[in-house]
Design a protein that fits this description.
This protein is α+β, with helices and mostly antiparallel strands. It has a single domain, classed as OB fold (Dihydrolipoamide Acetyltransferase, E2P) (Beta Barrel), CATH 2.40.50.180. It is about 20% helix and about 45% strand. Strand 10 and strand 11 form a beta hairpin.
Length: about 170
């Protein structure tokens, strides 16, 4: 019988790319992954907010993760995806260059972010660095990617869109 205390903990990560960098987020934060759909632009929104989409009757805000993290993007292609994620109490769509896999990673292979990290991503957004064979994954903390104020700002925009849709229906 295996010693329960020695069982290795694992995390399941959704692995995606922005430009040349590979990132991972915990799978329990990802609701779904879909192809890029038509996005309605929002006036006066921060530059990284692409706008809103109607996803099966629910209006959600979509951000361009490359712009948010200030990273070069590969540009929009057939591989571009929207990852619908849970950030706190909110559901947000995040545009990424591609989604490659779901990966199981032992917590032994996750290290704190080095002080001199070789990436342009702001350290506050990082949970750590995951090692898988000969590659490194930057693990994002989605709760840090958007501030509470930004989420509140997006929610107000979404509510105004919902309100204008209801008026059109009447």
């Amino acid at each position: 019988m295996a010693d329960v205390g020695k069982m290795k903990e694992e995390v399941q990560l959704v692995v995606f790319k922005i430009g040349e960098e590979e990132f991972g987020v915990e799978i329990n934060q990802v609701r779904e992954i879909g192809k890029l759909i038509s996005i309605t632009r929002m006036p006066k929104a921060p530059v990284f907010i692409e706008g809103v989409v109607n996803l099966r009757g629910k209006i959600i805000t979509v951000i361009d993760l490359a712009k948010r993290l200030d990273l070069p993007s590969a540009g929009r292609t057939d591989s571009t995806r929207i990852m619908v994620v849970e950030v706190g109490e909110d559901t947000v769509g995040m545009i990424v260059d591609s989604v490659s896999e779901v990966l199981r990673l032992s917590t032994d292979n996750i290290e704190d972010t080095p002080a001199l990290i070789d990436t342009e991503v702001h350290k506050q957004y990082l949970r750590g660095v995951g090692k898988s064979e000969d590659r490194l994954l930057i693990l994002l903390d989605l709760n840090e990617v958007l501030s509470t104020e930004e989420i509140r700002h997006m929610s107000k925009h979404v509510e105004s869109v919902k309100g204008s849709e209801k008026k059109e229906e009447e």
